Amino acid sequence: MKKLKTLIKRVRGWSLKKKIFYGILLVILVFAGIKIFTPPDNSKNIITDTVKRLDLKATVLATGQVVSATDLDLSFQQSGIVRTLKVKVGDKVVAGQVLATLDQSNELAALTQARGTVAAARAKYEKILAGSSNEEIELAKVALANAKNDYERVKSQQKTLVANAYKNLLNSTPEATPVTPADNYTAPTISGSYNLDKEGDIFISTYSTGGGEKFNLAGLLDGSGTVSTTAAQPVGNSGLYIKFPTSSAITAWKISLPNLAAADYITNLNAYHSALRTEEQALGGAEAMIDQRNAELALKQASARPADIEAAQADILGAQGILEAAAANLEHTILRAPESGTITKIEIKLGELAQALAKIMVLEDVNNLYLEANINEVNIKEIKIGAPIDLTFDALGPEIFLQGKVLEIEPSSSLVGGVVNYKITGSVEGEVKLLPGMTANMTILASEKKNVLAVPARAVIIGHDGGKIIRLVTEREKKTYEEVPIQTGLEADGGLVEILSGALQEGDEVVLAIKK
């Protein structure tokens, strides 16, 4: 009390200016203290909401399509003209029912022939078991004799053909050329047909005698003759003739057989080689036929051996294989229903050409439908098999709701518009009439939690340490708050998030946003 009285006395003793100065200073200090120690009023700048206890759901939205459990594009396995159409659009069919057929004339003929082959193979088998008759043995001997006669006939025929080809080769446009190469000469004219069947050169030398011009022959043959410029003279016994030019300084000539420079030499040479090959092939075929006939005779003369019986049995199996192949080819001309269902599309007419493996019909089971949808890789991890689905259909209108559930999630992905997607299938429950191809709007329940603390997701922010925090309002009127660390759970529809832990209770007010 004494100190206060002393302070008052001192103040009374101050000058007016000093009193004004310290009075203003005191007011400033009081105002600063109020600002510092009085909580701020943030009520106009802060948007808040309350912590609630709610039932949360997280859903995935998708657009799917109604698909038939049986959805088959049907086609023939081979091309052909459509001969019968046994169904029309809307017909219900059962598995194995014939829907259409192609022209079967060739396949039926092949099937009949295959059946004959099987019958023949079985008859042969029975015959081997019974053994050959004397008449069959005699017929085999006659067949062998005929094969030998054919061989001799072919041999003679081919020998003649080869000889003629060789003769044509030797007669490849014969001509006389100077023994000593020369320019600007007129060659003798060679005619006739060479018949000595020998290759080589015929040399002709001319000389003068008291009786006129003569010539001598050397090389392939010997002889002489008279030089004539008007009449062709025989060149020995070669079959060729020579007529000399009216004047020539050349006295030594040569006829090469064959003439390698002749225009027809290559053609005649090829023809000769072809005749040799033909002769070899023809004789080989004739010899093979003799061997075959010998083997057949030996077989008929022998008793049935185990190897023969096994071979006959193998022939039966081979024939049965041909029969089965023919039956399969016939089946390729028949279009059958692989499953029971309804014909929903026909894309062919009677008399048209059906291309192999081209779609001509669509078979669907319109009474057994399900849904297919693509879910992107971000959401697929949230979906589980058995998850319920809320459904609406564009074709039925938004007021009709159906239920379903997830049946399957394919493990392999596909790219749709450059985005990785996974296909899911879902069921449809209800009696509403649906058709394949209808668009389904799907709301898939990914997760659900009952009676949990929840706040709007935008109330949760990241703190300075990287953890999640929420700004809890501590003074409701002035909206003062403190930062509280939390842990979140389910991120639900409606922008809500579950609070797993933290100093929050139902009814607490939290900051959503602060206006600047």
CATH topology of the domain at 49-65 and 368-514: Elongation Factor Tu (Ef-tu), domain 3
Number of strands: 29
CATH architecture of the domain at 49-65 and 368-514: Beta Barrel
Strand order of the largest sheet: 2-19-22-21-20-23
Shape: elongated
Q: Which strand-content bin applies to the residues?
A: 35-45%
Annotation keywords:
Elongation Factor Tu (Ef-tu), domain 3, 516 residues, 7 helices, alpha+beta, elongated, 29 strands, UPF0194_transport, OB fold (Dihydrolipoamide Acetyltransferase, E2P), six-stranded antiparallel beta barrel
Describe the structure in your own words:
GO terms for molecular function: transmembrane transporter activity. This is CzcB-like barrel-sandwich hybrid domain-containing protein. It is found in: Cell envelope. Residues 79-364 form the CzcB-like barrel-sandwich hybrid domain. Pfam families: BSH_CzcB. The protein has 516 residues and is α+β, with helices and mostly antiparallel strands. Among the domains are: 2-37, no CATH class; 49-65 and 368-514, Elongation Factor Tu (Ef-tu), domain 3, CATH 2.40.30; 70-103 and 333-364, OB fold (Dihydrolipoamide Acetyltransferase, E2P) (Beta Barrel), CATH 2.40.50; 173-257. The chain is 32% helix and 37% strand. The protein has 7 helices and 29 strands. It has helices spanning 2-12, 16-37, 105-130, 134-170, 265-301, 306-331, 377-380, and strands at 46-50, 52-68, 71-74, 80-85, 92-93, 98-102, 176-178, 189-192, 200-209, 212-219, 223-226, 233-234, 240-243, 252-257, 334-336, 341-346, 353-354, 361-364, 369-376, 388-393, 397-416, 419-426, 439-456, 460-462, 468-475, 480-485, 487-492, 496-501, 509-514. A 6-stranded antiparallel beta barrel has the order 2-19-22-21-20-23. Strands 7-14-9-10-11 form a 5-stranded antiparallel sheet, with no helix packed on it. A hairpin with a 5-residue loop joins strand 24 and strand 25 (468-475). It is elongated, with a radius of gyration of 57 Å.
